Amino acid sequence: MRGIELLHPKMRAKAEELQALCKSQDLPLLITETWRTMTEQDALYAQGRTTPGNIVTKCKGSDYQSPHQWGVAFDFCKNIKGQEWSDTAFFKQIGALGKSIGLFWGGDFKSFVDMPHLELPEFLPANSTATLKKQHGTPEKFKAAWDGGGASTTAAATPGNRTTVKLGSSGADVKILQSALTAAGYPLSADGSFGPKTDDAVKKFQTAQKLTIDGIVGPKTWAALEQYINPGPLAAKTPEEVTVDNAIADGAVTDREHWLGVLRGTAVPNKEYIKVVLDRYHDKLAGKK
Ligand SMILES: [Zn+2]
Fold first, then answer.
1. Separation of 92 CA from ligand 1 center, angstroms?
2. Could you report the per-residue pLDDT of 127-175, keeping only the tens digit for each?
3. 35 C-alpha vs ligand 1 centroid, how far in Å?
4. How many CB atoms sit inside 10 A of residue 261's CB?
5. Which residue of 15, 38, 157, 239 pairs with 61 in a disulfide if CB–CB is 3.0 to 4.6 A?
6. Is the pTM higher than 0.70?
7. In a domain, 250, yes or no
């Protein structure tokens, strides 16, 4: 997932600060990854161990070892077609900027150099998620705490796994919904409260998308909205498009629409998915070919 609203508020603030710094210096930053689900992390971990390819992570999803699963890390690339992962100087420059605002840069990892990665050291003593795990148990509980708690905000906000919301709902997912509807051309204030105006916008969106017009935002409506969720001000292409186009260039996949669907959560992942995801996590850049 790439929406910075999925990050811990402190990390989200850092992401915004970095985006502003990059904008002022004309650096084409694109945040490609923020929150990572357990399934995504486990698929990455399997690579090079129980599935073909090279090892690209030492973090097991089911152990919550990746800071991405806790919303306290994000990855980035250069937002220029064809140069997304190839410009080492760019990664070093952004790494230095990240460090200047108090982040830890993955390029400084001793054992597993990860240049497109930045994380918030405050929650990660010794670059480990052990303290988070000890204090909060699971990422979902950690997230519930920073969202202010409450049943409407506890769900991990991932495509296919967002809370179903409707008239009367409130919370973080409603805010995401309102921002996405605004991006889709149905302007709303993102107040996190699902009232008649939001209901009206949802029904208009459902009508335009030829979905069931019930005002209920379930998996199908969320899937249709996914492309509008925090596209990022500098994104000429969506990260999914960057990923799939890279994978096509590398001969990993051929069917662009199908794989875009996979990454947007509207199709079922399979073995090839792992290859696409691999590309997404810049194994090329890390020299792990
Ligand atoms: Zn990362």
1. 15
2. 899 999 998 899 888 888 876 543 333 333 445 457 889 999 988 889 8
3. 10
4. 16
5. 38
6. no
7. no
